[in-house]
Amino acid sequence: MVHLRRKILSFGGLLNQLQPNVRWSSSLKIRDKEAVQPERTFKYSDMSVRLAAPHQLQIKPNVSDLAFGKYFTDHMLKVFYYEALGGWQMPEITPFENLVLHPAAKVLHYAIELFEGMKAYRGVDGKIRVFRPDMNMDRMNASAVRSGLPTFNGMELIKCINRLISIDQEWVPHSEASSLYIRPTLIGIDPTLGVATSDSAMLYVILSPVGSYFKSKESLRGVSLLADPRYTRAWPGGCGDRKMGSNYAPTIHVQKEATEKGLQQVLWLYGDDHQLTEAGTMNIFLFCINDQGEKELITPPLSGLILPGITRNSILAMTKEWNQFKVTERTITMTEVRHLLSENRCLELFGAGTACIVSPVSYIEYMGQGLHIPTLDHAEPVHRLIHKQLTEIQYGYVDHPWAMPIE
C-alpha cells in the first residue's frame, strides 16, 4: 500500500509539471478498494474558487461595442480528468488565464475535443437566466462518448457554471439586444502521440458578453447563402450531429468562397437530390403552403446529418403548441424550394441557433441562379413571432421552465 501511495504521489508530481496551475494534494489518501475506482463525475460541492486580483480585472466594454466572441470575463472554470488518479478531479474557478498544454496533447493532433454554446440573459426583473442548460449537457455528453472523452453529471456542471456566472454577473449585459455567451469545452490532453482514447482530459468554461451574431444591417436585409452541392458538411454514419471542432474547420474555405461572392453564409446540401441540412452553423426552417393548401413549417429530421439544436427543439415544441399550422420534420430539397418559389408558395426560410436565435434568409445563390426568398415581405412573419416568444422567455417577460434563474 505504501508503494502504491508513492507511485500515485509521484504521478501527481509529474502532472504538476505538465499542468502547473493544478494543485495536487500531498495528503492524498488511499482508503479501500472501492474508493480508488474512477469517479463517475466531479461534484459542485467540491469546487474551490480563486478570485482574480485587482490587477487581473478587465475593463468591461460598452454594450454597443460588443461583437461575437471578442471579449471575455474575469474568471473561468476548470476541471481535470486523470484516469490514473481515479477520474474527475475537483472543479476550480480561477482567474481567466491561458491554458498550459503538452505539445503532444491529443487535442492538438487528433482534434479530440468538443464544445457547447449556451447563453445567460439578464431579465427585465434583473434576474439572470440560462436557457435550457440541461439539453446542452445531454448533447455535450453525447459528443464526449463519440470522442472517447469522459462523461459527467450534467447537473453538477450546470451548478458550477451558475456559480461562475454569479461571480462574473456584472459581465451579463444590461440589454435585451445582448447576452452572455457560455462556452463549455472538453479536450483530450494526454501527452502521447497515437490515435486512441485520451486518459487525461480538461473541461473548462469561459464566458463572453456578446451582441447580435449578425450586424444590424444584415439582419434587416436577411441573410444571403451560397448553396453549392460540390461541398458536403456531414454524411450518414459521420459525426455531423455532434458539436466537435472537427466539423467546423473544413467549412472555413467554403465560407471564404461565399464571402468573396458577397454572401454571408453557406447553405449545406447533401446527396444527389441536394437536401438542405444546415445554414452556416444554424438549423434551417422552411415555412410554406404545401400541396394540400395548408401552411406548414418544415425542418430537416435528426438523421445524423445535422446538429440537434436546442433552439431547433424549442421552435418545434412552441409552434406545435400554437396549433396554427402544420409542423413537420422531413427532408427538404432544393428542387422543392425552387418549385415552391415558382408557385409563390415559399413564404419564409430562416436559420435558428443559440448564437443568432432566429435569422431570416432572403437570398440563395444555387447552381448559378439567384433565388430571392420573400421571408421579409410579410407584415407578421412566422420567424418574427418565434423570435418574440423565445426572447420573452429568455429575458423573463414570461415565467417558463426553459429559463433557469441563477440564484
Automatic annotation (TrEMBL):
GO biological process terms on file: L-leucine biosynthetic process; L-valine biosynthetic process
InterPro entries: Aminotrans_IV, Aminotrans_IV_CS, Aminotransferase-like, B_amino_transII, BCAT-like_C, BCAT-like_N, BCAT_family
Record key words, sorted: Amino-acid biosynthesis, Aminotransferase, Branched-chain amino acid biosynthesis, Pyridoxal phosphate, Transferase
Matching Gene3D superfamilies: 3.30.470.10, D-amino Acid Aminotransferase, subunit A, domain 2 (3.20.10.10)
EC class name: transferase
Record-listed E.C. numbers: 2.6.1.42
Catalytic activity: L-leucine + 2-oxoglutarate = 4-methyl-2-oxopentanoate + L-glutamate; L-valine + 2-oxoglutarate = 3-methyl-2-oxobutanoate + L-glutamate; L-isoleucine + 2-oxoglutarate = (S)-3-methyl-2-oxopentanoate + L-glutamate
GO CC, alphabetical: mitochondrion
Any one GO molecular function term: branched-chain-amino-acid transaminase activity
Keyword check for Glycoprotein: no
Keyword Amino-acid biosynthesis: yes
Sequence positions bearing N6-(pyridoxal phosphate)lysine: 243
Pfam families (UniProt xref): Aminotran_4
Cofactor(s) the record lists: pyridoxal 5'-phosphate
NCBIfam families: ilvE_II, PRK13357.1
Similarity-based family: Belongs to the class-IV pyridoxal-phosphate-dependent aminotransferase family.
Protein name according to UniProt: Branched-chain-amino-acid aminotransferase
Organism of origin: Nasonia vitripennis (Parasitic wasp)
